[in-house]
Fold this protein.
Amino acid sequence: MNADSMSPPQLLPVGMTTGINNLAEIWVYLSATPLFGLTITLLAYVLADIVYQRTNRHPLANPVLIAVAMIIAVLTLTHTDYKTYFQGAQFVHFLLGTATVALAIPLARLWNELRARAIPLLIALFAGAATSVFVAVGIARLLDAPPLIVASLLPKSVTAPIAMAIAEQIGGSPTLAAVFTVCTGIIGALIVTPLLNLLGVRDWAARGFAIGVAAHGIGTARAYSVHPRAGAYASLGMGLHALLGAMVLPWVAKLVL
């Protein structure tokens, strides 16, 4: 009996073994560079969007929520800290400002209509902003939350970059503010459709503006996926609430903290 006959059997085909080795080499390379964070961010969102489309854009299949869950799972399984992940993910974060500015394009096309509805929109804006503050402060006081939590929770309905800056200015934690803001956006995107259907709100402008004021960018993305008119009004609501929050919330904080 020769030596070849004594060798262990091949468990996997040669081609599959080579493919696995190639994937392992790619993983080792990515995990050691900033491309790791960028790659898993893009890949997670692509997969989440596929699920979203396959479920006929069901609110519970929100791609942001699914992508966040997938990224958390990967970081946990690979024991990767957030700082290492963000070295690559910051490139996507940088594009957030560009995407926000691009939202002005559909607003420019509706300029005449927006001017005619300026008064009702401003009333809705102040009502939505005031409700956000009352709910945040009310829940925090009910749970006897410390001032740090209250200050971090106060700008929860303002878009994330501005919310973080406001929280830092009024004595809160920018990190907690970002978490509260993202959670608010995801919850808003999940419940907006069934809630507004239950309330009998059918006008796309009203639906879009409401979700933009209440749930900022994530809610606006949900509005665009449902109807372009709702998306345009959602971007208006998000922008106006961000501007109002930056000017008013520091003064509100002095009263409630």
